[in-house]
Amino acid sequence: MKKKSRFLQTAIEPFAVEAGLTADQILARMERISFQGRNLAKAHRIWQKMLQDDVTIFLGMAGALSAGGLRMAVAHLIANRYVDCLVSTGANLYHDLHETRGRRHYIGSPRENDAALQDEHIDRVYDTYASEDEFVDNDEWIAAFALTLERRPYTTREFLYRLGEYLWKETRREGILTAAYRASVPIFCPAIADSSIGMGLSQARHREADAGHIDVIGDIVESANLVIRRPRTASVVLGGGTPKNFINQASVQAEFYDDRVGGHRYALQIVTDVPHFGGASGSSLEEAQSWGKLATDAEQVTVQADATIALPLLVSALATSARDALAARKPLQFELSGPAMAVEGRPFPPGRFEART
Amino acid sequence: MKKKSRFLQTAIEPFAVEAGLTADQILARMERISFQGRNLAKAHRIWQKMLQDDVTIFLGMAGALSAGGLRMAVAHLIANRYVDCLVSTGANLYHDLHETRGRRHYIGSPRENDAALQDEHIDRVYDTYASEDEFVDNDEWIAAFALTLERRPYTTREFLYRLGEYLWKETRREGILTAAYRASVPIFCPAIADSSIGMGLSQARHREADAGHIDVIGDIVESANLVIRRPRTASVVLGGGTPKNFINQASVQAEFYDDRVGGHRYALQIVTDVPHFGGASGSSLEEAQSWGKLATDAEQVTVQADATIALPLLVSALATSARDALAARKPLQFELSGPAMAVEGRPFPPGRFEART
Amino acid sequence: MKKKSRFLQTAIEPFAVEAGLTADQILARMERISFQGRNLAKAHRIWQKMLQDDVTIFLGMAGALSAGGLRMAVAHLIANRYVDCLVSTGANLYHDLHETRGRRHYIGSPRENDAALQDEHIDRVYDTYASEDEFVDNDEWIAAFALTLERRPYTTREFLYRLGEYLWKETRREGILTAAYRASVPIFCPAIADSSIGMGLSQARHREADAGHIDVIGDIVESANLVIRRPRTASVVLGGGTPKNFINQASVQAEFYDDRVGGHRYALQIVTDVPHFGGASGSSLEEAQSWGKLATDAEQVTVQADATIALPLLVSALATSARDALAARKPLQFELSGPAMAVEGRPFPPGRFEART
Amino acid sequence: MKKKSRFLQTAIEPFAVEAGLTADQILARMERISFQGRNLAKAHRIWQKMLQDDVTIFLGMAGALSAGGLRMAVAHLIANRYVDCLVSTGANLYHDLHETRGRRHYIGSPRENDAALQDEHIDRVYDTYASEDEFVDNDEWIAAFALTLERRPYTTREFLYRLGEYLWKETRREGILTAAYRASVPIFCPAIADSSIGMGLSQARHREADAGHIDVIGDIVESANLVIRRPRTASVVLGGGTPKNFINQASVQAEFYDDRVGGHRYALQIVTDVPHFGGASGSSLEEAQSWGKLATDAEQVTVQADATIALPLLVSALATSARDALAARKPLQFELSGPAMAVEGRPFPPGRFEART
């Protein structure tokens, strides 16, 4: 009999439908199907491995996930230390703050008349609405908060920690910012100037010329130091954007000062953009390996899917399948209240890349 | 206090992560998030409604779903009469036949060297492999089967029924074709000439000049008669392609002969194509309403997602949530063994559209 | 000095803007940029090469290109023998017939109220409208034409030749069908049953039970024979769909009967679908090589773009750049008026694959 | 005779192929076709109108356009004042700087082995390569430049003006940064921290703790003041990302301080992202109207296309069709050399939003 080709080793196992399947059982049955279903199952497997390994896990978050109903899923990931550091767009933090302050986003239609919405001061994000008047109030609240801070530049990491603290003390409500504050998980927001949080800061500046100073270059130093301190890292990216690149940049920048860094050991991304137009959001993880952003032997997977479908399934599955790994995990302990953050009690040098030790 | 805008009525409810959630619980929690997650949850709700209503449910199936591990999910939908009629591409039926005959598809890589694959007679479908030699054998098997048939034109509906029967008797294995045969669910394959089943038929023709005659125009008549017989219809479309249009065409064609038809009452589609390039696969269900393919008051939803993610979750949920509706459902009874099919014991007029009664 | 890496050989040459550039000059300047712009420039170069080589060029056409204003561009390609054989969806031929019969499609809006359109019997294709009443009239016209034919099965190739002839004699207007008739270029339409041409045929059947017989399996034999007769082929695909696969299938089927075939020598596709969901429309040309649809040393390019942008630029460029090649080209001469087509005066064996000579 | 429906007013005019057509002639013939071809033709028409109207034109630039061969097209738009203000990602400015410094990007393959590339220090951007060693040298050059600046925060606008000046004086070569310097066109880069320019700045900081201070909040104030000063604005967006939102944010922020602003009067975007996943890059211009980013009566169009195809055609056309409008245009005169920019000789208040006058 003819020998089986080396290419035909593991057969596709058709998905078997059954009543009562839980999320982790569904993903387990998707491991041997094809296309993005298989990739999502692989993402589940890789995230489990990250949690069992001694790595610092970065989570990147772009797209309208907070407005779109995933902020408590992200808060869950932070509070339970599925991740160690969040890199986010400003909008996701702003829409989180909006709900933590007790306001809501609303179910809407992508085909509504936008002039009618504008008339009623309703802002639309595809199929989701919010009150512009409430947004104006948020901006003022952020400006007022910013005026409580010292008159010096703050990295976004320090600023957002303070913001989370202020928000928690005022509201005692769960959310991304408050979860990160309570769990001492750092948040970076490299494009803060391109968001309503930035707008609130600019309004603080308008009131007092020495207020609202953000030191985004300091964030680059600090995020790279985080990688230098523990070069074994992992990257989980939702939606691409500036968070995706910033997480990779931390790895590349760290490598300049410590050649043991070597790129992320694990990477998974859930994106809807595609590689063939050349943009960073859709770029492949293979491409990331050419840059050294990702180790060439990293376990990695790209899931081409909307996070509003993929994340509920994936995190629900991990809530079961990763329970033991989470319980056993010893995540990095951060101290975030000052201008220089500390990891495991050892502060980073202020404004400098850490020397290789 | 200012009154709430009419646009801000139903708040987004962030997805709450919890261990042990089942598929239907996950989809229930996705009903009040945004974007495609909400749409998938809505698809779940609409399919449940279809099953409780007195409608004929068409399922359209394009894309490499059989090769990609979803054939048993589709077989489950047929066997348990979540659907009443399948419209498929030839490839999906062919890859189903391949596995029902005991062969497999295999896990592969989208980045493999294709010249190396060709050397070893491996055919690649993105990240999935199969043996070309086994495909050649299938083609011959199909040709041999076709030569067992009478020398007259067969609609694809009759041909595929006979094929399912032959396959079942030979293999006693589950699959799409065999499930449809056993449940007497009709299958239409309008583009059969664009598939390996068509290739097998052409090889029968090569051997005997009067063999391999397929009457695809007869399928148009029969599918329209199916709608005329019971004008209340629903459409479930996976992946667009010829099945999507054929299901809609049945509705439009039926309307010519019976103005009570009025378009599908329910429609859900899971597609990855987009509307803005004008192609039928990505066309919106709103657009379908302009043509009368869909009733203007139909409940409908488009889910922009890969079926290999969306379908396992959706069908797993229905297996629980639709259990009672399926038990109570009285699906149409078909008689498919002859040139003219019969519904509830009453045959269609051969080669003619049924008159309005 | 350090030697240049083997990977850094040909520099990107930024596109230089200049007034008065013609299409071919623009594409020439796009050859050394990146992403899809480079790919489109490469498509231009490959098509030029095809025209200078001794190959049979297949053109596949899916998506709403005829309704969308590209039918005269395709007619130009046929009339001037940039291509030797057209494989089309039924819809593209139908919308061509609609305009050749003197009716029009109209500029519309993708955001119009579709219930209002339905009320006025307007059918919408994304941003384009047409009169449903005129469509009904077309269907009847097609049925009437079909009743003029002999009562025997017609391949789509023969049927469409007769249709083009009838249309030309009635209208004397330019279009795809009439250009193909006048230039004796064969058209195949494997999914004719999934189109309004099929609907017209079904209405002929309704009137006379032995009318409207189409032999799509015969098309498979004939298209494969076309490849066997001259195994050097090229494939130009617009939009994927059944035409893309049918052109590749002709090559694979031909290989069964003549192992000199070896796949297309050139391939270019302009598609908007992507590979990673596994569907045939978006499948890569590399993948096609694993199947032997495409020679492993073929010159090939995929352009990820809407054909309504890419084709006007590409064909305008070729009208200048390929002038000499077109003048020198000796395209295959077809005889299409009977049940068996002839190439260069030699008919194909009816209903049989041609033996290797 | 039946009256024509109000929906059927302007017929599609099929694209007529002809040798020797120039870019503007091609776009003129695309105005009455469908889908994205029509949209690109409309973009051409809208940009012409912008140039004839008294508006400030913002250009947003995301995606790898500089690396991908479009930097000289953008430089042409700046030098000839098709636009008045550039908002860019850091990467586009960095890759521009790379070439202006005399280095190149190279033609590569999207399927190359990335481990092999990494071994040779080649960084890949889809199908384009560059030398990592040259990038390291750029970063050091940027750090060295940053150390020449005063020890105070710089807005990106001021920083990039100085960078362009330095680059021009050193190289005398054309490019985006040098064109903007020479034409006194302001550039904002809200996400500068997420780019290699930011990395260069962080290396300056590493050397001297008080170096490398960027004031991104100051950019928000200044960009809004630009809108307050002349509320009639237009937006041209390539590829979405932070530039798209930042341009819209300037309009929204300006409205807080001057209610005459009212959103952009014209908007065109060339994007590959889609609206239905909720992300900002793909968001529709209709949605922008709900937020007041765009006037509800604005002339606007979204072109779903890769900029590497659309931009060469569009700008080549404008180079001819907009010649007179450009000659007649009196663009805003900026003074950009200090911490507070001036428009038409009148400086903005430092760190404050301008009061309505």
Provide structural commentary:
The structure is a homotetramer of 357-residue chains. Chain A is an alpha/beta fold and 357 residues long. Helices cover 47% and strands 15% of the residues of chain A. Chain A contains 14 helices and 12 strands. In chain A, helix 12 links the parallel strand 8 and strand 9. In chain A, helix 1 packs across helix 13, helix 2 packs across helix 13 and helix 3 packs parallel to helix 13. The first copy, chain A, is globular. Chains in contact: A-B, A-C, A-D, B-C, B-D, C-D. The interface between C and D is large, with 73 and 73 residues.
Brief characterization of the structure:
Helices cover 47% and strands 15% of the residues of chain A.
Instruction: Measure the end-to-end span of chain A.
Output: 60 Å
Secondary-structure content class of chain A: alpha/beta
Order of helices and strands of chain A: HHEHEHEHEEHHHEHHEHEHEHHEEE
How would a textbook summarize the main sheet of chain A?
Answer: 6 strands, parallel
What amount of the residues of chain A lies in strands?
Answer: 5-15%
Greatest chain-chain interface? A-D, 81 and 82 residues
Strand order of the largest sheet of chain A: 6-2-1-7-8-9
* Total strand segments of chain A: 12
Determine the number of helices of chain A (DSSP H or I, runs of at least 4 residues).
14
Helix content of chain A: 40-55%
- The best one-word shape of chain A is globular
Quaternary assembly: homotetramer
Radius of gyration of chain A: 21 Å
Mean pLDDT of chain A: 96
